[in-house]
Amino acid sequence: MKGEINFSKFTNFETIKIGIIGCGTMGSAILEQILKERVFSKNQILINDKDKKKEREISQKYKVKASEINEVLKQSDFIILAIKPQDFLSFGKEVSFPKNKIVISIMAGVEASSIKKILGVKKIVRAMPNLMVKIGKGVIVWKEQGLSSNETRNVKKIFKALGEEIRVKDENLISQATLISGCGPGYLYFFEDLLLKSFERLGFSEKFISKLLAGTFFGAILYQRKEKKNPKDLIKMVASKGGVTEKFLETLKEKKIYEIFEQAAQSANNHNIKRKI
Length: 277
Ligand SMILES: NC(=O)c1ccc[n+]([C@@H]2O[C@H](COP(=O)([O-])OP(=O)(O)OC[C@H]3O[C@@H](n4cnc5c(N)ncnc54)[C@H](OP(=O)(O)O)[C@@H]3O)[C@@H](O)[C@H]2O)c1
What we know:
alpha/beta, 13% strand, binds NADP nicotinamide-adenine-dinucleotide phosphate, Rossmann fold, 12 helices, ProC C-terminal domain-like fold, 8-stranded mixed β-sheet
């Protein structure tokens, strides 16, 4: 097919070049994992970041080449856009984006139609990963448009190296994923911190609590996955009648924890809708 990158001639993408624009938390996490999984070798990757100190550090740490933005755009077949959504409009104005490239955007709230309009590209992958891509345990919800089936298959291979990839047909699901899997690690860590602070106030040692919580959360999720049970049934297994867990949860309900969570979900959702580009 005319204009298509011919992946079939390089099963392991040996001659493909990938550009990562924005090497902050997510850009560097993706870089780390694709190198670890050997999806691409170091010499196939080009990076760019506005923050030149950060760019230099990442380039030295992972031994990948940092280049000036237009060079990255010119040389790369795939371009991963890992800049913040609020930087996208000015980025679009600053660069002249080559039209035949495959753009993989992980920017929250930036719709494929906006990417098409602002960069003038046709081959767009919109993805919502989370931080756990750094260890290959991410959740990546994604949707492509304008890609051939061969190109789509190869994008899937990249995501597979990052964790659990979930390809969707409806772009709204990417927005929903932002609130669940994108932000999810933040919610969990907040909950962990709440537990930590609450029990620390009772005089328990921070080090001891941290160790127990990390092991407990890890085991709890593995168990749930193995048993395929819903949280309500699992709670019943732990919160026996008249027990301590039941007391803890009852207190949360009395203090209207459900209402608080509903409000938090509502305001996060409103914010997610309002900031759409
Ligand atoms: N963090 C998460 O857990 C998460 C999860 C899912 C999706 N995302 C999405 O991933 C994207 C990146 O998030 P992040 O947390 O990695 O942000 P970040 O740590 O702030 O990294 C973004 C990097 O891009 C740089 N940058 C800004 N404008 C640029 C430009 N024109 N050219 C090159 N580099 C530029 C920034 O430099 P300066 O610092 O100098 O501005 C920064 O180093 C966001 O769009 C976010 O919505 C994040």
